[in-house]
Amino acid sequence: MTELGTPSLIEGKKIAIVGGGPSGLTLAKLLQMRGGDVTVYDLDASLEARNQGGSLDLHEMSGQLALKKAGLLDAFDAAARPEGQATRVLDKEGNVYIDLKPSDENSTRPEIDRGTLQTILFESLEPGTVKWGHRLRAIERAVDGHLRLLFDNGVTEKPDLVFGSDGAWSKVRPMVSSEKPQYSGITFIEGRVSGGDAHWDEISRLVGEGAVMITGDNRAILAQRNSDGHIRLYACLRETQAWIERQHFDFGNPASVRTKLLDHYAGWSPDMRRLLTASDDYFVLRPIFTHRPLQHWIAQPDVSLTGDAAHVMPPFTGKGVNLAMQDAMELADNLTEGAYPDIPAALRAYETVMLTRMEKEIDLVLQDQDIFVSPVAPKGVIELFQKRLAEMA
After folding, report:
1. R_g of the chain, CA atoms, integer Å
2. pTM across the whole model
3. Domains in the chain and their CATH numbers?
4. Which residue of 132, 134, 248, 334 sits 20 to 30 Å from the alpha carbon of 372, by its own alpha carbon?
5. Mean pLDDT lowest for which of 212-216, 241-245, 315-319?
6. Are 171 and 148 in contact (CB under 8 A)?
7. Is the C-alpha dihedral spanning 49, 121, 25, 85 positive or negative?
8. Residues ≥6 apart with Cβ < 8 Å to 127
9. Over 90: is that where the pLDDT of 382 sits?
């Protein structure tokens, strides 16, 4: 029952969430604490099976608010790094364009490692909620109208509700939309510098306590400090997918990848290129995809999406995880607070608000991408930051 005394729409329903990232785990927690019978299915063998990614900044009115509703804000505050909010933007010669400190902003967005955030959420769930090693092969609707989830391990599940939180290449998404992510025109090559503070004083000072972006010539290098002392970096290249393929980056030979990257940043200051020369023998190719700002969905009475499954976009605003967790919060509220007569109405209301919001957000991040990674960058960056700070005031 809700606080108003009306039955929760999820009462007696078997709920499947596909994907154990921040959005899926947030949704699971919020529904579970309101009486939902929730199971999360994730393709990984365990939470520790792979590196979960870099550092995330959680915003007050989205990511942090979702954690507050989940009763996890204290755990977040204990693990977060407020100093990680610091942001710097430099040109390829090392001239500083932006040097933003946490005290310069009117709201907080402290950093937390993605793996730490997922651990906080996972450990808050009832034991057995997450079923590891379940890679979804397909979702289908049986002749009788019921849903079936078919997993690669041979398991078949028949839930009443399915929520896809399974990333850009979601297996659930075809139920609501035939539109697939499109290449954004930017490719990241991820790397890392271990022991930055202990072994690389110049790099430690360059990155500062939070993140730095160095940009110019249709190139950028983004570096962010992580909690264990290493610095995660991304070489950002504005090139076609065909161009990337022609480069024949051999990721089994990290030294050759480093050499090729250094060639692509020829003409940059040696101090800026040091992030690449000092990088570990670890590189990962990450082409950046996006959904179109305006999407068209086919309404389903028992299926919906959150996070990247619904609206993947480039990471230049830092809003991605926040919008994903906001999705989870709003979807859970619609299903449990008694504002809608039935589940289809609750899902349609959620999707209408979410898709309207994301039309604007995706358009904005694509504009930001064109400013940060362009032939004239960092021209326009100061104006961009001034506009964003004015909007937050």
Report:
1. 22
2. 0.94
3. 14-81+113-181+292-371 (3.50.50.60), 182-290 (3.30.9.30)
4. 248
5. 315-319
6. no
7. negative
8. none
9. no
